[in-house]
Here is the input.
Amino acid sequence: MSGGLDDRIDFGRELMRAQTETFTRYFGQVESQWKSDGSRVTEADFAISKAFESELENRFSDDLFLSEELDAASLPIQVSERFAWLVDPIDGTNNFARGIPSCSISVALLEEGRPVYGFIYDHMSRSLIDGGQDKGVFVEGQKRHCLDRPPSPQSIVGGQHCGTGRSAEDDLALQKRFKVRNFGSSAIQLAYVGVGWLDGVIAHRVNTWDIAAGVAMIQAAGWQIRYFDAEPFPLDSFDVSSKPFGYLAAPPSVLESMVEATGR
Here is the structure.
């Protein structure tokens, strides 16, 4: 099946709905393994990843499938197809395995290597959040209309984790201006900025599969994202061992204040 962007958006929503059942069944009830980089992985990660791959093969066999759980021996993969799907089957795996609801499924549709639409199942709100270019951002099918509120001490910014060195300095600088929260899922925090539940987010160690879906939502909302180093999109090559990177994302007025505070 060839189809266009709208066909793929409908497909993505259908598939996310189906996989939330798998997610819920395994939530807090699954054994963990540990990868060489120290990150946690579970049977649910592999099950959801395989389900996406199988359904994509059936519906859009010409599209490229990319997942955090792909066999490292098959990598890197050149991203040369027009459409590619970048999947993080469980974002916030530590929370998921322990039964803490701040975790998600994150799927991004890429066109020519750029995130054009994102789908995030947020287990905290039990909601499907999705959105992309020229479409807007939706929570359970309801379009969100967010305002660029001026920054204030009441603004809430998402952080990633307690770090050291420069990351700790950044976190401290932001705490002097805003309320800072860490939900343990990069995908959720970006989605929350996209729908206006958070006012901004900073992260120091993420990968493309963590943020691609949220990036599409940030752009759809008209907000901005600022990477600390080179921009990771368009994605030319996919490798699960790629070097992590950092970014700031927020509406323009809040982003300006975050950049001023951190010097990023």
In short: The chain is about 35% helix and 30% strand. Residues 5-143 form a domain with the Fructose-1,6-Bisphosphatase; Chain A, domain 1 fold (CATH 3.30.540.10). The helical segments are 5-26, 43-59, 93-98, 166-175, 186-195, 208-221, 252-262. Residues 26 and 90 are 11 Å apart (CA to CA).
